[in-house]
Amino acid sequence: MNLEERIHRRLDSLYWARRTHEIVKYPPEGYDDNGVYCREEWTDFSDIGKSFGGVVLTREEYLEVENRYVECAVEIVETSQCKYMTIGYVEDYQNKGYRYKDRINGDQLRDVLRDILRNETWCVLVNLKHKVQIDFGWDYYMHVICPLEETRLRRIVESHNLYLNPRSNAKSILRIEE
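The chain above was modelled as a monomer; its predicted structure follows.
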């Protein structure tokens, strides 16, 4: 069974479903009852220089937020006792040289995370031995699967001025459609 099949098999398991978290820069009070973020907010590296809510996003402000995400992800990886992450899936838009099954650690992990946040590549980073996975969705949503207890994970996330599972109180997430 190849790495991609192993990732999908694990994602289908109940353990992984219970350990999946969203980490974002968006405060929970900005979400409506359906889990939709309703405030005007920048969502991309290409938004530098554009105005949001009457405030222009500067490169410095962007980099500060990007660094919070990168350091949060690195701390989660290290706290989960991973010595490296493996690229389980890759789309390398800018020919950065990332390849499927590459092992990534240290500063290289930071570089990959920055490239993902800047839409220069998209990777699913995994460490199957320690049950950790990190990937990013649209609009700066970081998806994390890890063995850490939620209270410990929350402390890490909040120490980087980010939010864990901000939509967890949305009515639509808890409601079963008929």
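The beta strands are 20-24, 51-52, 55-56, 85-91, 103-104, 122-127, 132-136, 142-145, 163-164.
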